[in-house]
Amino acid sequence: MSTSSSSSSFPRTIVSYTLSTSLFIVFFLCSVFLFTRRALEPSLSPYHADIPLPDPRPPIEPLPSKDLNGKPHDADADLTVDTNPNQDEADPRRDGDVAVNTQPKATEDSDGAELAAKPDLEDEGASRKEESVEENNAESAEEQAVVEKLRGCDLYKGSWVKDGDEYPLYQPGSCPYVDDAFDCQRNGRRDSDYLNWRWKPDGCDLPRFNATDFLEKLRGKSLMLVGDSMNRNQFESMLCVLREGLADKSRMYEVHGHNITKGRGYFVFKFEDYNCTVEFVRSHFLVREGVRANAQGNTNPTLSIDRIDKSNGRWKRANILVFNTGHWWVHGKTARGKNYYKEGDFIYPKFDATEAYRRALKTWAKWIDQNVNPKNQLVFYRGYSSAHFRGGEWDSGGSCNGEKEPVKKGSILDSYPLKMKIVEEAIKEMQVPVILLNVTKLTNFRKDGHPSIYGKINLDGKKVSSRKQDCSHWCLPGVPDVWNHLIYVSLLIQAHS
Ligand SMILES: *[C@@H]1O[C@H](CO)[C@@H](O)[C@H](O)[C@H]1NC(C)=O
Ligand SMILES: *[C@@H]1O[C@H](CO)[C@@H](O)[C@H](O)[C@H]1NC(C)=O
Ligand SMILES: *[C@@H]1O[C@H](CO)[C@@H](O)[C@H](O)[C@H]1NC(C)=O
Ligand SMILES: *[C@@H]1O[C@H](CO)[C@@H](O)[C@H](O)[C@H]1NC(C)=O
Protein backbone atom coordinates (compact mmCIF):
# COMPACT_ATOMS: atom_id res chain seq x y z
CA MET A 1 0.00 0.00 0.00
CA SER A 2 2.68 2.35 1.18
CA THR A 3 4.77 1.16 -1.72
CA SER A 4 1.91 1.66 -3.99
CA SER A 5 1.08 4.96 -2.32
CA SER A 6 4.69 6.11 -2.28
CA SER A 7 5.22 4.72 -5.75
CA SER A 8 2.03 6.38 -6.88
CA SER A 9 2.72 9.62 -4.94
CA PHE A 10 6.06 10.21 -6.66
CA PRO A 11 4.75 10.04 -10.20
CA ARG A 12 1.72 12.06 -9.05
CA THR A 13 3.99 14.89 -7.91
CA ILE A 14 5.81 14.74 -11.24
CA VAL A 15 2.52 14.69 -13.16
CA SER A 16 1.10 17.71 -11.30
CA TYR A 17 4.44 19.53 -11.64
CA THR A 18 4.59 18.81 -15.36
CA LEU A 19 0.93 19.81 -15.70
CA SER A 20 1.38 23.20 -14.04
CA THR A 21 4.55 23.86 -16.04
CA SER A 22 2.75 23.02 -19.28
CA LEU A 23 -0.19 25.20 -18.28
CA PHE A 24 2.19 28.04 -17.51
CA ILE A 25 3.93 27.62 -20.83
CA VAL A 26 0.63 27.51 -22.70
CA PHE A 27 -0.56 30.57 -20.81
CA PHE A 28 2.73 32.34 -21.49
CA LEU A 29 2.62 31.53 -25.21
CA CYS A 30 -0.99 32.68 -25.44
CA SER A 31 -0.16 36.00 -23.79
CA VAL A 32 2.83 36.50 -26.04
CA PHE A 33 0.68 35.68 -29.05
CA LEU A 34 -2.11 38.07 -28.03
CA PHE A 35 0.30 40.78 -27.06
CA THR A 36 2.17 40.48 -30.33
CA ARG A 37 -1.05 40.71 -32.34
CA ARG A 38 -2.22 43.78 -30.46
CA ALA A 39 1.18 45.38 -30.69
CA LEU A 40 1.55 44.71 -34.39
CA GLU A 41 -1.91 45.49 -35.63
CA PRO A 42 -2.07 49.22 -35.10
CA SER A 43 1.37 49.74 -36.56
CA LEU A 44 0.64 47.64 -39.61
CA SER A 45 -2.74 48.86 -40.73
CA PRO A 46 -2.04 52.57 -40.98
CA TYR A 47 1.08 51.67 -42.88
CA HIS A 48 -1.14 50.09 -45.50
CA ALA A 49 -3.70 52.84 -45.36
CA ASP A 50 -1.51 55.92 -45.47
CA ILE A 51 1.15 55.14 -47.99
CA PRO A 52 -0.52 55.26 -51.38
CA LEU A 53 0.69 52.82 -53.95
CA PRO A 54 2.01 54.46 -57.04
CA ASP A 55 -0.49 54.49 -59.89
CA PRO A 56 0.27 52.11 -62.65
CA ARG A 57 1.53 54.24 -65.48
CA PRO A 58 -0.30 54.08 -68.78
CA PRO A 59 1.05 51.39 -71.05
CA ILE A 60 4.00 52.61 -73.02
CA GLU A 61 3.25 52.70 -76.69
CA PRO A 62 5.84 52.40 -79.37
CA LEU A 63 6.34 55.84 -80.82
CA PRO A 64 7.07 56.54 -84.43
CA SER A 65 10.34 58.39 -84.70
CA LYS A 66 9.18 59.54 -88.11
CA ASP A 67 6.29 61.56 -89.37
CA LEU A 68 2.94 59.92 -90.06
CA ASN A 69 3.85 60.08 -93.73
CA GLY A 70 6.86 57.93 -93.06
CA LYS A 71 9.06 60.92 -93.80
CA PRO A 72 11.29 62.35 -91.12
CA HIS A 73 9.49 65.35 -89.73
CA ASP A 74 10.36 68.64 -91.33
CA ALA A 75 11.22 70.72 -88.32
CA ASP A 76 11.35 74.05 -90.09
CA ALA A 77 8.01 73.58 -91.72
CA ASP A 78 6.50 73.31 -88.27
CA LEU A 79 7.71 76.75 -87.40
CA THR A 80 6.98 78.92 -90.32
CA VAL A 81 3.65 77.94 -91.80
CA ASP A 82 1.17 80.73 -91.81
CA THR A 83 -0.39 83.55 -93.65
CA ASN A 84 -1.68 86.99 -92.92
CA PRO A 85 -5.21 86.69 -91.50
CA ASN A 86 -6.32 89.46 -93.85
CA GLN A 87 -6.04 86.97 -96.66
CA ASP A 88 -8.79 84.92 -95.12
CA GLU A 89 -11.11 87.83 -94.77
CA ALA A 90 -13.17 86.77 -97.73
CA ASP A 91 -16.54 88.14 -96.74
CA PRO A 92 -16.34 90.77 -94.03
CA ARG A 93 -19.94 91.93 -94.59
CA ARG A 94 -21.28 88.81 -92.91
CA ASP A 95 -19.52 89.44 -89.59
CA GLY A 96 -22.40 91.32 -88.02
CA ASP A 97 -24.91 88.63 -88.92
CA VAL A 98 -23.35 85.84 -86.91
CA ALA A 99 -24.94 85.54 -83.50
CA VAL A 100 -22.59 86.47 -80.67
CA ASN A 101 -22.83 83.55 -78.35
CA THR A 102 -20.09 82.41 -76.03
CA GLN A 103 -20.99 78.78 -75.50
CA PRO A 104 -22.93 77.85 -78.62
CA LYS A 105 -24.49 74.55 -77.61
CA ALA A 106 -22.58 73.38 -74.63
CA THR A 107 -24.26 75.44 -71.90
CA GLU A 108 -27.66 74.16 -72.95
CA ASP A 109 -26.51 70.63 -72.51
CA SER A 110 -27.23 69.17 -69.10
CA ASP A 111 -25.17 66.05 -69.73
CA GLY A 112 -22.02 68.11 -69.65
CA ALA A 113 -22.52 68.89 -65.96
CA GLU A 114 -21.75 65.28 -65.08
CA LEU A 115 -18.23 65.83 -66.19
CA ALA A 116 -17.52 67.72 -62.99
CA ALA A 117 -19.34 65.27 -60.74
CA LYS A 118 -16.14 63.48 -59.64
CA PRO A 119 -17.40 59.90 -59.72
CA ASP A 120 -14.12 58.70 -58.16
CA LEU A 121 -15.28 59.99 -54.76
CA GLU A 122 -17.33 56.83 -54.40
CA ASP A 123 -14.20 54.75 -53.95
CA GLU A 124 -13.15 56.51 -50.76
CA GLY A 125 -14.10 55.88 -47.12
CA ALA A 126 -17.52 57.01 -45.91
CA SER A 127 -16.44 59.71 -43.43
CA ARG A 128 -13.89 61.07 -45.85
CA LYS A 129 -16.63 61.13 -48.44
CA GLU A 130 -19.02 63.14 -46.30
CA GLU A 131 -16.29 65.59 -45.46
CA SER A 132 -15.41 66.06 -49.10
CA VAL A 133 -19.02 66.45 -50.10
CA GLU A 134 -19.47 69.16 -47.46
CA GLU A 135 -16.32 70.92 -48.62
CA ASN A 136 -17.45 70.58 -52.19
CA ASN A 137 -20.80 72.11 -51.37
CA ALA A 138 -19.20 75.16 -49.80
CA GLU A 139 -16.83 75.45 -52.74
CA SER A 140 -19.52 75.00 -55.33
CA ALA A 141 -21.76 77.62 -53.69
CA GLU A 142 -18.88 80.06 -53.97
CA GLU A 143 -18.21 78.89 -57.50
CA GLN A 144 -21.88 79.17 -58.34
CA ALA A 145 -21.78 82.85 -57.40
CA VAL A 146 -18.73 83.40 -59.60
CA VAL A 147 -20.34 81.59 -62.51
CA GLU A 148 -23.60 83.51 -62.04
CA LYS A 149 -21.74 86.70 -62.89
CA LEU A 150 -20.57 85.19 -66.18
CA ARG A 151 -24.04 84.36 -67.43
CA GLY A 152 -24.89 86.02 -70.70
CA CYS A 153 -21.38 87.48 -70.94
CA ASP A 154 -19.52 87.03 -74.24
CA LEU A 155 -16.09 86.00 -72.99
CA TYR A 156 -14.50 86.69 -76.36
CA LYS A 157 -15.66 90.27 -76.90
CA GLY A 158 -13.51 92.66 -74.93
CA SER A 159 -10.11 94.26 -74.67
CA TRP A 160 -6.65 93.74 -73.20
CA VAL A 161 -5.89 95.39 -69.88
CA LYS A 162 -2.39 95.83 -68.52
CA ASP A 163 -2.21 94.00 -65.20
CA GLY A 164 1.22 93.08 -63.92
CA ASP A 165 -0.39 91.64 -60.80
CA GLU A 166 -2.17 88.67 -62.39
CA TYR A 167 -0.05 88.21 -65.51
CA PRO A 168 2.31 86.57 -66.38
CA LEU A 169 0.93 83.38 -64.82
CA TYR A 170 4.53 82.09 -64.48
CA GLN A 171 7.85 83.89 -64.69
CA PRO A 172 9.74 83.90 -68.00
CA GLY A 173 12.45 81.27 -67.95
CA SER A 174 10.90 79.43 -64.97
CA CYS A 175 9.05 76.71 -66.86
CA PRO A 176 11.11 73.81 -68.23
CA TYR A 177 8.44 72.89 -70.80
CA VAL A 178 8.74 75.98 -72.97
CA ASP A 179 10.25 75.11 -76.35
CA ASP A 180 13.38 77.03 -77.37
CA ALA A 181 11.35 78.57 -80.18
CA PHE A 182 8.89 80.21 -77.74
CA ASP A 183 11.34 81.14 -74.97
CA CYS A 184 11.63 84.75 -76.10
CA GLN A 185 13.19 86.29 -72.98
CA ARG A 186 15.91 83.67 -72.88
CA ASN A 187 16.52 84.24 -76.57
CA GLY A 188 17.24 87.89 -75.91
CA ARG A 189 13.93 89.74 -76.07
CA ARG A 190 14.36 92.75 -73.78
CA ASP A 191 10.94 94.45 -73.66
CA SER A 192 8.55 92.87 -71.18
CA ASP A 193 5.25 94.77 -71.38
CA TYR A 194 3.83 92.00 -73.57
CA LEU A 195 3.92 89.71 -70.51
CA ASN A 196 1.49 91.76 -68.45
CA TRP A 197 -1.73 91.87 -70.43
CA ARG A 198 -4.87 90.15 -69.24
CA TRP A 199 -8.04 89.70 -71.27
CA LYS A 200 -11.08 91.65 -70.06
CA PRO A 201 -14.49 90.74 -71.57
CA ASP A 202 -16.73 93.80 -71.98
CA GLY A 203 -19.61 92.37 -69.95
CA CYS A 204 -17.78 90.70 -67.05
CA ASP A 205 -14.41 89.94 -65.47
CA LEU A 206 -12.77 86.57 -65.95
CA PRO A 207 -12.45 84.78 -62.59
CA ARG A 208 -8.82 84.87 -61.58
CA PHE A 209 -6.79 81.94 -62.87
CA ASN A 210 -6.41 79.29 -60.14
CA ALA A 211 -4.02 76.50 -61.13
CA THR A 212 -4.83 74.31 -58.11
CA ASP A 213 -8.50 74.56 -58.83
CA PHE A 214 -7.91 73.79 -62.51
CA LEU A 215 -5.98 70.66 -61.45
CA GLU A 216 -8.83 69.69 -59.11
CA LYS A 217 -11.19 69.91 -62.07
CA LEU A 218 -8.88 67.61 -64.04
CA ARG A 219 -8.55 65.02 -61.25
CA GLY A 220 -8.76 61.49 -62.63
CA LYS A 221 -9.12 62.80 -66.18
CA SER A 222 -7.08 63.30 -69.31
CA LEU A 223 -6.85 66.54 -71.23
CA MET A 224 -5.57 66.23 -74.79
CA LEU A 225 -4.63 68.88 -77.32
CA VAL A 226 -4.80 67.69 -80.92
CA GLY A 227 -3.59 69.83 -83.79
CA ASP A 228 -0.64 71.62 -85.34
CA SER A 229 2.28 73.48 -83.82
CA MET A 230 -0.04 76.27 -82.64
CA ASN A 231 -1.63 73.66 -80.41
CA ARG A 232 1.81 72.52 -79.26
CA ASN A 233 2.38 76.16 -78.33
CA GLN A 234 -0.85 76.02 -76.30
CA PHE A 235 0.06 72.61 -74.84
CA GLU A 236 3.38 73.93 -73.50
CA SER A 237 1.51 76.87 -72.00
CA MET A 238 -0.95 74.44 -70.39
CA LEU A 239 1.88 72.47 -68.76
CA CYS A 240 3.39 75.69 -67.43
CA VAL A 241 0.20 77.23 -66.01
CA LEU A 242 -0.81 73.96 -64.31
CA ARG A 243 2.70 73.42 -62.96
CA GLU A 244 2.26 76.59 -60.90
CA GLY A 245 -0.48 74.77 -58.96
CA LEU A 246 1.86 71.99 -57.77
CA ALA A 247 3.38 72.16 -54.29
CA ASP A 248 6.02 69.66 -55.43
CA LYS A 249 6.87 70.39 -59.05
CA SER A 250 8.84 67.18 -59.47
CA ARG A 251 5.52 65.32 -59.34
CA MET A 252 4.78 65.94 -63.00
CA TYR A 253 6.68 64.15 -65.72
CA GLU A 254 6.48 62.95 -69.30
CA VAL A 255 5.55 59.28 -68.97
CA HIS A 256 7.99 58.10 -71.66
CA GLY A 257 10.75 60.41 -70.42
CA HIS A 258 10.70 62.58 -73.55
CA ASN A 259 11.68 66.22 -73.59
CA ILE A 260 9.45 68.41 -75.74
CA THR A 261 10.88 68.92 -79.20
CA LYS A 262 9.08 69.90 -82.33
CA GLY A 263 10.21 66.73 -84.05
CA ARG A 264 8.03 64.53 -81.87
CA GLY A 265 4.28 64.26 -82.31
CA TYR A 266 3.06 62.73 -79.05
CA PHE A 267 3.56 63.63 -75.39
CA VAL A 268 1.83 62.48 -72.21
CA PHE A 269 2.45 64.39 -69.00
CA LYS A 270 1.26 62.85 -65.77
CA PHE A 271 0.39 64.97 -62.72
CA GLU A 272 0.96 62.38 -59.99
CA ASP A 273 -0.93 64.17 -57.19
CA TYR A 274 -4.03 64.70 -59.30
CA ASN A 275 -4.02 61.40 -61.18
CA CYS A 276 -4.48 63.26 -64.42
CA THR A 277 -2.67 63.60 -67.72
CA VAL A 278 -2.15 66.44 -70.18
CA GLU A 279 -1.31 65.18 -73.66
CA PHE A 280 -0.46 66.47 -77.11
CA VAL A 281 -1.10 64.64 -80.36
CA ARG A 282 0.18 66.23 -83.54
CA SER A 283 -2.31 66.26 -86.40
CA HIS A 284 -1.81 69.10 -88.86
CA PHE A 285 -5.06 68.60 -90.74
CA LEU A 286 -7.19 66.33 -88.49
CA VAL A 287 -7.76 64.28 -91.65
CA ARG A 288 -5.44 61.66 -93.10
CA GLU A 289 -2.14 62.45 -94.76
CA GLY A 290 -0.85 59.91 -97.25
CA VAL A 291 1.45 59.47 -100.24
CA ARG A 292 1.06 58.37 -103.83
CA ALA A 293 3.66 57.20 -106.29
CA ASN A 294 3.86 59.27 -109.48
CA ALA A 295 4.94 58.23 -112.99
CA GLN A 296 8.60 59.09 -112.26
CA GLY A 297 8.57 56.65 -109.32
CA ASN A 298 8.70 59.46 -106.73
CA THR A 299 6.18 59.77 -103.98
CA ASN A 300 3.98 62.83 -103.52
CA PRO A 301 1.91 63.72 -100.49
CA THR A 302 -1.88 63.42 -100.56
CA LEU A 303 -4.61 64.40 -98.14
CA SER A 304 -7.71 62.22 -97.73
CA ILE A 305 -10.36 64.75 -96.75
CA ASP A 306 -12.97 62.03 -96.19
CA ARG A 307 -10.90 60.00 -93.71
CA ILE A 308 -10.00 60.91 -90.16
CA ASP A 309 -6.33 61.20 -89.17
CA LYS A 310 -4.50 58.02 -88.20
CA SER A 311 -3.94 59.28 -84.65
CA ASN A 312 -7.70 59.17 -83.88
CA GLY A 313 -7.30 56.02 -81.73
CA ARG A 314 -5.54 58.21 -79.16
CA TRP A 315 -8.19 60.92 -79.27
CA LYS A 316 -10.88 58.47 -78.15
CA ARG A 317 -9.27 57.94 -74.77
CA ALA A 318 -9.28 61.59 -73.66
CA ASN A 319 -11.90 63.15 -71.38
CA ILE A 320 -11.29 66.70 -72.55
CA LEU A 321 -10.21 67.35 -76.13
CA VAL A 322 -8.94 70.61 -77.60
CA PHE A 323 -8.69 70.59 -81.40
CA ASN A 324 -7.34 73.05 -83.92
CA THR A 325 -6.32 73.12 -87.55
CA GLY A 326 -5.91 75.95 -90.00
CA HIS A 327 -2.38 77.15 -90.51
CA TRP A 328 -1.44 74.28 -92.79
CA TRP A 329 -4.30 74.92 -95.22
CA VAL A 330 -2.89 78.05 -96.77
CA HIS A 331 0.48 77.32 -98.24
CA GLY A 332 2.20 75.39 -100.99
CA LYS A 333 0.66 72.08 -102.01
CA THR A 334 -2.40 72.60 -99.82
CA ALA A 335 -3.34 75.93 -101.41
CA ARG A 336 -2.50 74.81 -104.97
CA GLY A 337 -4.55 71.63 -104.52
CA LYS A 338 -3.01 69.86 -107.53
CA ASN A 339 -3.11 66.07 -107.38
CA TYR A 340 -3.28 66.40 -103.64
CA TYR A 341 -6.82 66.14 -102.26
CA LYS A 342 -8.27 62.67 -102.20
CA GLU A 343 -11.72 61.19 -101.62
CA GLY A 344 -12.07 57.42 -101.62
CA ASP A 345 -9.47 56.26 -104.12
CA PHE A 346 -9.87 59.30 -106.29
CA ILE A 347 -7.20 62.01 -106.32
CA TYR A 348 -8.54 65.31 -107.65
CA PRO A 349 -6.27 66.76 -110.37
CA LYS A 350 -7.23 70.20 -108.98
CA PHE A 351 -9.35 71.02 -105.96
CA ASP A 352 -10.24 74.19 -104.08
CA ALA A 353 -8.49 74.45 -100.71
CA THR A 354 -11.44 76.14 -98.98
CA GLU A 355 -13.85 73.43 -100.08
CA ALA A 356 -11.30 70.81 -98.99
CA TYR A 357 -11.13 72.47 -95.58
CA ARG A 358 -14.93 72.45 -95.32
CA ARG A 359 -15.11 68.74 -96.18
CA ALA A 360 -12.27 67.90 -93.80
CA LEU A 361 -14.08 69.61 -90.94
CA LYS A 362 -17.24 67.68 -91.80
CA THR A 363 -15.19 64.48 -91.61
CA TRP A 364 -13.90 65.58 -88.20
CA ALA A 365 -17.43 66.52 -87.04
CA LYS A 366 -18.79 63.14 -88.10
CA TRP A 367 -16.01 61.36 -86.23
CA ILE A 368 -16.78 63.35 -83.06
CA ASP A 369 -20.48 62.54 -83.33
CA GLN A 370 -19.74 58.85 -83.74
CA ASN A 371 -16.94 58.43 -81.23
CA VAL A 372 -17.34 60.94 -78.43
CA ASN A 373 -19.65 60.33 -75.48
CA PRO A 374 -20.79 63.71 -74.14
CA LYS A 375 -21.53 62.14 -70.73
CA ASN A 376 -17.85 61.81 -69.90
CA GLN A 377 -16.09 63.69 -72.67
CA LEU A 378 -15.93 67.36 -73.52
CA VAL A 379 -14.79 68.83 -76.84
CA PHE A 380 -13.28 72.24 -77.49
CA TYR A 381 -12.32 73.67 -80.86
CA ARG A 382 -9.77 76.45 -80.50
CA GLY A 383 -10.37 79.15 -83.10
CA TYR A 384 -7.88 80.49 -85.60
CA SER A 385 -4.89 82.26 -84.10
CA SER A 386 -3.97 85.39 -86.04
CA ALA A 387 -0.55 86.10 -87.47
CA HIS A 388 0.98 89.56 -87.88
CA PHE A 389 3.38 89.83 -90.78
CA ARG A 390 4.31 93.31 -91.99
CA GLY A 391 5.59 93.87 -95.49
CA GLY A 392 5.44 90.28 -96.65
CA GLU A 393 4.32 86.80 -95.73
CA TRP A 394 5.85 84.16 -93.50
CA ASP A 395 8.01 82.99 -96.40
CA SER A 396 8.71 86.31 -98.11
CA GLY A 397 10.36 88.55 -95.57
CA GLY A 398 7.29 89.47 -93.50
CA SER A 399 8.22 90.78 -90.06
CA CYS A 400 6.81 91.71 -86.66
CA ASN A 401 9.92 92.54 -84.66
CA GLY A 402 9.95 95.72 -82.61
CA GLU A 403 6.22 95.50 -81.85
CA LYS A 404 5.84 96.28 -78.16
CA GLU A 405 2.14 97.13 -77.84
CA PRO A 406 -1.08 95.44 -78.92
CA VAL A 407 -2.97 96.90 -81.88
CA LYS A 408 -5.28 99.69 -80.70
CA LYS A 409 -7.52 100.15 -83.71
CA GLY A 410 -7.82 99.33 -87.37
CA SER A 411 -9.42 96.87 -89.71
CA ILE A 412 -7.27 93.97 -88.52
CA LEU A 413 -9.23 93.91 -85.26
CA ASP A 414 -12.42 92.97 -87.06
CA SER A 415 -10.99 90.38 -89.38
CA TYR A 416 -12.72 87.06 -88.94
CA PRO A 417 -11.43 84.44 -91.36
CA LEU A 418 -13.71 82.48 -93.67
CA LYS A 419 -12.15 79.41 -92.07
CA MET A 420 -13.80 80.33 -88.79
CA LYS A 421 -17.19 80.66 -90.43
CA ILE A 422 -16.70 77.18 -91.83
CA VAL A 423 -15.84 75.91 -88.35
CA GLU A 424 -19.00 77.51 -86.93
CA GLU A 425 -21.12 75.93 -89.67
CA ALA A 426 -19.66 72.48 -88.97
CA ILE A 427 -20.18 72.80 -85.21
CA LYS A 428 -23.78 73.93 -85.62
CA GLU A 429 -24.70 70.72 -87.39
CA MET A 430 -23.16 68.40 -84.82
CA GLN A 431 -24.98 66.30 -82.23
CA VAL A 432 -22.14 66.36 -79.72
CA PRO A 433 -21.83 69.87 -78.28
CA VAL A 434 -18.52 71.55 -79.06
CA ILE A 435 -17.30 74.60 -77.17
CA LEU A 436 -15.78 77.08 -79.59
CA LEU A 437 -12.81 78.75 -77.94
CA ASN A 438 -13.37 81.82 -80.09
CA VAL A 439 -9.95 83.41 -79.63
CA THR A 440 -9.45 84.82 -83.14
CA LYS A 441 -10.46 88.36 -82.26
CA LEU A 442 -8.42 88.54 -79.08
CA THR A 443 -5.37 87.37 -80.99
CA ASN A 444 -5.98 90.05 -83.65
CA PHE A 445 -4.86 92.66 -81.09
CA ARG A 446 -1.61 90.99 -80.14
CA LYS A 447 0.93 91.92 -82.78
CA ASP A 448 3.38 92.30 -79.87
CA GLY A 449 3.13 88.69 -78.71
CA HIS A 450 5.05 86.77 -81.40
CA PRO A 451 8.62 85.50 -81.14
CA SER A 452 9.62 87.46 -84.29
CA ILE A 453 13.44 87.28 -84.28
CA TYR A 454 13.52 85.70 -80.80
CA GLY A 455 12.43 82.24 -81.89
CA LYS A 456 16.13 81.48 -81.66
CA ILE A 457 18.89 82.90 -79.54
CA ASN A 458 19.50 86.50 -80.57
CA LEU A 459 21.36 88.14 -77.75
CA ASP A 460 22.34 91.46 -79.25
CA GLY A 461 18.66 92.01 -80.05
CA LYS A 462 19.40 94.75 -82.55
CA LYS A 463 20.64 93.14 -85.69
CA VAL A 464 17.59 92.06 -87.65
CA SER A 465 18.48 89.02 -89.61
CA SER A 466 17.12 88.44 -93.07
CA ARG A 467 15.91 84.96 -92.19
CA LYS A 468 12.24 84.22 -91.61
CA GLN A 469 10.61 85.76 -88.57
CA ASP A 470 8.02 83.92 -86.55
CA CYS A 471 4.94 86.12 -86.44
CA SER A 472 2.53 83.15 -86.11
CA HIS A 473 3.42 81.38 -82.87
CA TRP A 474 3.51 83.09 -79.48
CA CYS A 475 6.14 83.80 -76.87
CA LEU A 476 5.62 81.96 -73.56
CA PRO A 477 4.57 83.26 -71.11
CA GLY A 478 2.10 84.95 -73.42
CA VAL A 479 -1.12 84.82 -75.38
CA PRO A 480 -1.79 81.01 -75.18
CA ASP A 481 -1.84 81.33 -71.36
CA VAL A 482 -5.01 83.36 -71.85
CA TRP A 483 -6.55 80.67 -74.08
CA ASN A 484 -5.94 78.19 -71.26
CA HIS A 485 -7.38 80.65 -68.74
CA LEU A 486 -10.50 80.63 -70.96
CA ILE A 487 -10.57 76.81 -70.92
CA TYR A 488 -10.44 76.96 -67.12
CA VAL A 489 -13.33 79.43 -67.06
CA SER A 490 -15.30 77.29 -69.53
CA LEU A 491 -14.87 74.28 -67.20
CA LEU A 492 -16.21 76.36 -64.30
CA ILE A 493 -19.24 77.35 -66.35
CA GLN A 494 -19.68 73.80 -67.57
CA ALA A 495 -19.76 72.42 -64.02
CA HIS A 496 -22.67 74.69 -63.13
CA SER A 497 -24.81 74.52 -66.22
C1 LIG B 1 -7.75 78.06 -55.61
O1 LIG B 1 -8.48 76.86 -55.60
C2 LIG B 1 -8.25 76.05 -54.46
C3 LIG B 1 -8.93 74.71 -54.70
O2 LIG B 1 -10.21 74.85 -55.20
C4 LIG B 1 -8.75 76.78 -53.24
O3 LIG B 1 -8.54 76.00 -52.08
C5 LIG B 1 -8.01 78.11 -53.12
O4 LIG B 1 -8.54 78.88 -52.06
C6 LIG B 1 -8.13 78.91 -54.41
N1 LIG B 1 -7.24 80.07 -54.34
C7 LIG B 1 -7.67 81.30 -54.51
C8 LIG B 1 -6.66 82.37 -54.40
O5 LIG B 1 -8.85 81.55 -54.77
C1 LIG C 1 -6.98 57.50 -61.62
O1 LIG C 1 -7.82 57.84 -62.69
C2 LIG C 1 -8.30 56.73 -63.41
C3 LIG C 1 -9.13 57.26 -64.55
O2 LIG C 1 -8.33 58.01 -65.39
C4 LIG C 1 -9.12 55.82 -62.53
O3 LIG C 1 -9.53 54.69 -63.26
C5 LIG C 1 -8.28 55.41 -61.34
O4 LIG C 1 -9.09 54.66 -60.45
C6 LIG C 1 -7.73 56.62 -60.62
N1 LIG C 1 -6.84 56.20 -59.56
C7 LIG C 1 -6.92 56.68 -58.32
C8 LIG C 1 -5.90 56.18 -57.36
O5 LIG C 1 -7.75 57.51 -58.00
C1 LIG D 1 15.97 66.43 -71.28
O1 LIG D 1 16.52 67.69 -70.96
C2 LIG D 1 17.29 67.69 -69.79
C3 LIG D 1 17.67 69.12 -69.48
O2 LIG D 1 17.85 69.88 -70.62
C4 LIG D 1 18.51 66.79 -69.99
O3 LIG D 1 19.30 66.78 -68.82
C5 LIG D 1 18.00 65.39 -70.29
O4 LIG D 1 19.09 64.54 -70.57
C6 LIG D 1 17.06 65.39 -71.48
N1 LIG D 1 16.47 64.07 -71.60
C7 LIG D 1 16.34 63.44 -72.76
C8 LIG D 1 15.67 62.11 -72.73
O5 LIG D 1 16.73 63.92 -73.81
C1 LIG E 1 -16.55 84.60 -82.59
O1 LIG E 1 -16.04 85.90 -82.54
C2 LIG E 1 -16.31 86.70 -83.68
C3 LIG E 1 -15.69 88.06 -83.48
O2 LIG E 1 -14.34 87.96 -83.54
C4 LIG E 1 -17.79 86.84 -83.91
O3 LIG E 1 -18.03 87.55 -85.10
C5 LIG E 1 -18.41 85.47 -84.00
O4 LIG E 1 -19.80 85.57 -84.09
C6 LIG E 1 -18.06 84.65 -82.75
N1 LIG E 1 -18.59 83.31 -82.91
C7 LIG E 1 -19.34 82.71 -81.98
C8 LIG E 1 -19.87 81.37 -82.28
O5 LIG E 1 -19.59 83.23 -80.90
Tags for this entry?
TBL_C, single chain, TBL, binds 2-acetamido-2-deoxy-beta-D-glucopyranose, 4-stranded mixed beta sheet, transmembrane helix, Trichome birefringence-like N-terminal domain-containing protein, 7-stranded mixed beta sheet, 497 residues, alpha/beta, membrane, 11 helices, disordered N terminus
Explained architecture:
With 497 residues, this protein is α/β, with parallel strands linked by helices. It has helices spanning 2-50, 75-80, 126-148, 211-218, 229-243, 312-315, 332-336, 353-371, 418-428, 440-444, 479-495, and strands at 158-162, 197-201, 222-227, 252-254, 266-271, 276-282, 287-293, 299-308, 320-323, 341-343, 346-347, 378-382, 434-437. β5 and β6 (276-282) form a beta hairpin.
Based on Cα principal axes, name the global outline. globular
Give the tally of structural domains.
1
Q: What is the tally of beta strands?
A: 13
Range of strand content:
5-15%
H and E order: HHHEEHEHEEEEEHEHEEHEHEHH
Low-confidence stretches: 1-9, 32-126
User: What's the gyration radius in Å?
Assistant: 31 Å
Sheet of most strands? 7 strands, mixed
Task: Classify the helix fraction into a percent range.
Answer: 25-40%
Q: Strand order, biggest sheet? A: 4-5-6-3-9-12-13
In whole angstroms, the N-to-C terminal distance is: 103 Å
Bound molecules: 2-acetamido-2-deoxy-beta-D-glucopyranose
Find the structural class using helix and strand composition.
alpha/beta
Q: What's the number of helices? A: 11
What is the typical, i.e. mean, pLDDT?
79
